[in-house]
Design a protein that fits this description.
Number of domains: 2
Strand content: 5-15%
CATH superfamily of the largest domain: HAD superfamily/HAD-like
Helix content: 40-55%
CATH architecture of the largest domain: 3-Layer(aba) Sandwich
CATH class of the largest domain: Alpha Beta
Order of helices and strands: EHHHHHHEHEHHEHEH
Number of strands: 5
Largest sheet: 5 strands, parallel
Length: about 210
């Protein structure tokens, strides 16, 4: 299905990455490969064993700890700026037509954002919003914005969806969740939500038809 059926839907929960803002995950991989040189696999395997990135996404470690750990693991006197630039390399832009769609949708639906993210990434996105739209955050486009590092939990855990549902008195059968990661839809379905997978090649402007 390449178009979302919005019949019977009253509420829409959007993921952020690759649904609202375009991402290039390979750009961050490439940047870290350059920083790590021939130790890239070793460094990433060690970090993944400790669920390092998941801890950052759930606020279990601070940005300072995140950057310093990467500096220590990579070595070679890597600067803080080099780490942050590599981490943010995946973040592209929010196309103008996406802002227009969000503005149109919020006239007819209650709209929310639920993102697995972190302090560095969301600061980058908010700075982009200030520069391009003159606004401070995403509150102009959503009734509420939920960020994993502030909530202490992340998708696909069913609890994070239940938090959004309960906070806003949503009826799950009237609520649609859109995400680019198929695995995240599992928790949403357990919470009783309708789901749509924004798989590669799809874009919000094409599938919503607003």
């Amino acid at each position: 299905m390449d178009r979302i059926d919005l019949k019977k839907i009253k509420n829409i929960i959007f993921d952020l990455g690759n649904v609202i803002i375009d991402l290039d995950m390979a750009a961050t991989d490439s940047a870290f490969k350059k920083l790590c040189a021939d130790r890239y696999e070793e460094v990433m395997n060690e970090l993944n064993k400790e669920f390092f990135f998941e801890k950052y996404e759930t606020g279990k470690i601070s940005t300072k700890e995140f950057v310093q750990t990467l500096q220590s693991m990579i070595g070679n006197g890597i600067s803080e700026k080099a780490i942050i630039d590599a981490w943010n390399a995946m973040l592209l832009t929010i196309p103008d037509e996406r802002y227009n769609i969000l503005n149109s949708l919020k006239e007819d639906y209650r709209t929310f954002c639920l993102s697995n993210t972190n302090e560095l990434h969301i600061e980058y996105v908010f700075n982009q919003l200030k520069q391009t739209k003159g606004i401070q955050n995403l509150d102009d486009y959503f009734e509420r914005v939920y960020l994993s590092h502030e909530m202490g939990q992340r998708k696909p855990n069913v609890e994070i969806f239940e938090t959004v549902i309960n906070d806003n008195n949503l009826v799950p059968s009237e609520t649609l969740f859109i995400d680019d990661t198929a695995g995240h839809l599992v928790g949403a379905k357990k919470a009783g939500l309708h789901t749509f997978h924004m798989s590669e090649g799809r874009s919000l402007e094409r599938v919503v038809g607003y």
